[in-house]
UniProtKB/TrEMBL annotation, chain A:
One of its GO terms (biological process) is proteolysis. The gene is ubiU. It comes from the Bacteria. Belongs to the peptidase U32 family. UbiU subfamily. PANTHER family: PEPTIDASE U32 FAMILY (PTHR30217), UBIQUINONE BIOSYNTHESIS PROTEIN UBIU (PTHR30217:SF3). [4Fe-4S] cluster binds at C175, C182, C199, C238. One of its GO terms (molecular function) is peptidase activity. Required for O(2)-independent ubiquinone (coenzyme Q) biosynthesis. Together with UbiV, is essential for the C6-hydroxylation reaction in the oxygen-independent ubiquinone biosynthesis pathway. This is Ubiquinone biosynthesis protein UbiU. Forms a heterodimer with UbiV. Keywords: 4Fe-4S, Hydrolase, Iron, Iron-sulfur, Metal-binding, Protease, Ubiquinone biosynthesis.
From TrEMBL, chain B:
Pathway: Cofactor biosynthesis; ubiquinone biosynthesis. It holds the Pfam family Peptidase_U32. Signal peptide: none annotated. [4Fe-4S] cluster binds at C44, C180, C193, C197. Belongs to the peptidase U32 family. UbiV subfamily. Required for O(2)-independent ubiquinone (coenzyme Q) biosynthesis. Together with UbiU, is essential for the C6-hydroxylation reaction in the oxygen-independent ubiquinone biosynthesis pathway. GO terms for biological process: proteolysis; ubiquinone biosynthetic process. It comes from Paramesorhizobium deserti. This is Ubiquinone biosynthesis protein UbiV.
Length: 331, 304
């Protein structure tokens, strides 16, 4: 679907305070989840109760923003009731859409809440027009969050072929694997994004000092070693340092995060309907800063002005950033 | 434990030469006690041209040997050429197709029967019910599932007349990416990869900086370093309703012997524990795992 409208800025919120900050900073939509394993950021102290969600919806609607509820893990066999209730509760709270990945849940939502707007989560990894059409035709999906494995040209080609909106990530943490199809975390820890809503969970992280080096471990495996005076990166499995043959280093991905701000013109040109910022686990002030900056960037684009470059550099934890798969050379 | 339990030889995940490919399947046809064989490229579309001409002959030989043939689809489909590969598989309506990405399912008409591969996220009854209604006849459950889920889903599968299958042997597929890690560690780009993945017939070992064996890369795919082995769990898997066991091909000329071990346990001619010891003797230096099934972390290995 070609895009003639102003692209929607979709912002994360892990707490009611972050939700209000995102709305105040100019988010068009805010996405959030319930405090349980039904969403892919199932971290302690994060996310919303049903009551908090209903309050958040009221706040957002008053401010002219929408609320999207991520129910994007894969229900455990025998326990789908918890996920079904999450969908029911999102409807009851007045949410504008749910973001789903599991086929069974999509079928449930279509059947029980036919008027509820359904978005396809990045966790479903629908990576081409045929797969997207399948979800549109079978489950009435209105928007697909594209997996972070596609180039800008591929995204443009998809938009020429499909009858639904597309949403792409533009900033924040970067999965190097096709999301929803990765069990690296559970291989090392028993806890996975698909089943538990966590990746490389802090509960399984250990640090120890050894010969002047800080060793970061995930479960029984060393993910990185750095000299003691250097800041130790969090041991996210796919950003770790390993050896493979003669190679020693970041086999999968450097500890970078995504910043596609400068690609906003091309992505608009490619027909993308919504830009998504990752980071429901982030603080309220981080959310405020990132949303404010992206609001400016999108508004500049729509006014035909140049995108301010590098304004978000300081928000990437001192990390280097990458445009990821959007540029073909990344592969 | 009777002949009701069947063995599926999964698709070859690695980049072998065309001759190695043909020799492997000739030997499987002649010697391996497997019931069905999955053929086709699951990992990287660039590899298929090297052996596509060999596939018809392999199909013929395997079918003559009484093996059922399943054509496996690609796991991650982004390019036009890759979508076409799916369309091409759908043309063969006399052969069962294994769906490894929903792109493939989109190409199969309603009512057409198919097998669901282990890379499709079947975690619960709702998803299984949808796939059953679409025509699934067999579902190889994701390797990540614990026994409790397998038990529930096997019961559900029986209700729909679907054969539940588990990943029973071989390095487990853990992730798939747009990026080629084989190319990356060799300082190459994916588009000019020189097919360096061909150097590693079982994948390239990825060790931690402390020398612990951890993972294995296979082009765009990441596998476990350990070889999954559910030999010691076959009894309770059969009791829970699992009817099919998937063995994933590896190099080294041992797959016939591996299949024979599984066949013996499935036929109750050998105990799981004894077979486990035989497997360890057959593949010296190989670390095994059954942690996912046991509800632990995937790399764990618990003896029965």
């Amino acid at each position: 679907m070609q895009n003639s409208r102003r692209p929607e800025l979709v912002c994360p919120a892990g707490t009611p305070a972050a939700l209000r900050a995102a709305v105040d900073a100019g988010a068009d939509s805010v996405y959030c989840g319930f405090c349980d394993e039904t969403n892919a950021r199932n971290f302690p102290g994060l996310n919303f109760t049903s009551v908090e969600l209903a309050e958040g919806v009221r706040y957002a609607h008053t401010g002219g923003a929408r609320i999207l509820v991520a129910i994007n893990t894969f229900p455990r066999a025998g326990a789908a009731e918890l996920w079904h209730r999450a969908i029911d509760n999102a409807v009851r709270a007045g949410a504008d859409a749910v973001i789903l990945a599991d086929i069974g849940l999509l079928a449930y939502a279509r059947e029980r809440h036919p008027d509820l707007r359904r978005h396809l989560s990045v966790q479903a990894a629908a990576s081409n027009a045929d797969a997207i059409r399948f979800y549109v035709e079978e489950f009435g999906v209105r928007r697909v969050v594209l997996p972070r494995v596609l180039t800008v040209n591929e995204i443009a080609a998809i938009n020429r072929e499909v009858a639904c909106e597309t949403e792409v990530f533009v900033f924040g943490g970067l999965c190097v694997m096709a999301e929803g199809r990765c069990s690296l975390s559970s291989y090392a820890t028993g806890k996975s994004p698909n089943m538990n809503g966590v990746c490389s969970p802090a509960s399984h992280v250990h640090y120890r000092e050894e010969k002047g080096e800080l060793v970061s471990r995930l479960g029984d495996f060393t993910i990185d070693r750095v000299p003691r005076h250097q800041p130790a990166p969090y041991p996210t499995l796919c950003k770790g340092c390993f050896s493979a043959g003669d190679y020693r280093g970041h086999v999968f991905e450097d500890p970078v995060s995504l910043d596609a701000a400068t690609l906003i013109p091309q992505l608009v040109q490619a027909g993308v309907s919504a830009f998504k910022i990752e980071g429901r686990q982030r603080s309220r002030s981080y959310i405020r800063d990132v949303v404010t900056n992206f609001r400016r960037a999108v508004d500049a684009q729509m006014a035909g002005e140049p995108i301010p470059a590098g304004v978000l550099q300081h928000l990437s934890e001192g990390q280097t950033t990458t445009a990821g798969a959007y540029r073909k050379t990344w592969r | 434990m009777t002949r009701n339990s069947t063995i599926t030889l999964g698709p070859l995940l690695f980049n072998w030469t065309a001759d190695q490919w043909s020799d492997f399947y000739a030997r499987i046809a002649d010697e391996a006690p497997v019931d069905r064989v999955c053929l086709g490229e699951v990992v990287c579309s660039k590899r298929l041209p090297f052996y596509i001409d060999r596939i018809p002959q392999a199909i013929e030989r395997l079918q003559r040997a009484g093996k059922e043939i399943i054509l496996s689809s690609l796991a991650l489909v982004t390019l036009k050429r890759e979508r076409q590969m799916c369309a091409d598989l759908a043309i063969h309506d006399d052969l069962e197709v294994e769906v490894n990405d929903l792109t493939m399912l989109a190409r199969l008409g309603h009512g057409r029967s198919f097998t669901v591969g282990p890379l499709i996220n079947v975690y619960n009854e709702g998803t299984l019910a949808y796939l059953a209604q679409r025509g699934a006849t067999r579902i190889c459950l994701p390797p990540e599932l614990p026994f409790a889920s397998i038990e529930l889903l096997s019961g559900e599968a029986a209700f729909y007349g679907i054969e539940p299958e588990v990943w029973a042997f071989g390095r487990m597929p853990l992730a798939i990416s747009g990026r080629c890690y084989h190319a990356r560690v060799h300082g190459l780009a994916k588009d000019n990869c020189q097919f360096v993945c061909g150097k590693d017939p079982d994948g390239l070992e990825v060790d931690t900086l402390d020398g612990e064996a951890f993972l294995a890369v296979n082009g765009v795919q990441t596998l476990s370093s350990t070889y999954c082995s559910l030999l010691e769990d076959i009894g309770r898997l059969i009791s829970s309703g699992v009817t099919s066991f998937r063995l994933s091909p590896h190099g080294g000329g041992k797959m016939v012997a591996v299949a024979e071990l599984f066949r013996r346990v499935l036929d109750a001619q050998m105990g799981g524990q004894e077979a486990g010891h035989s497997l360890a003797a057959l593949l010296p230096g190989t670390a095994f795992s059954n942690g996912f099934l046991r509800g632990r972390y995937g790399a764990a290995y618990e003896r029965a």
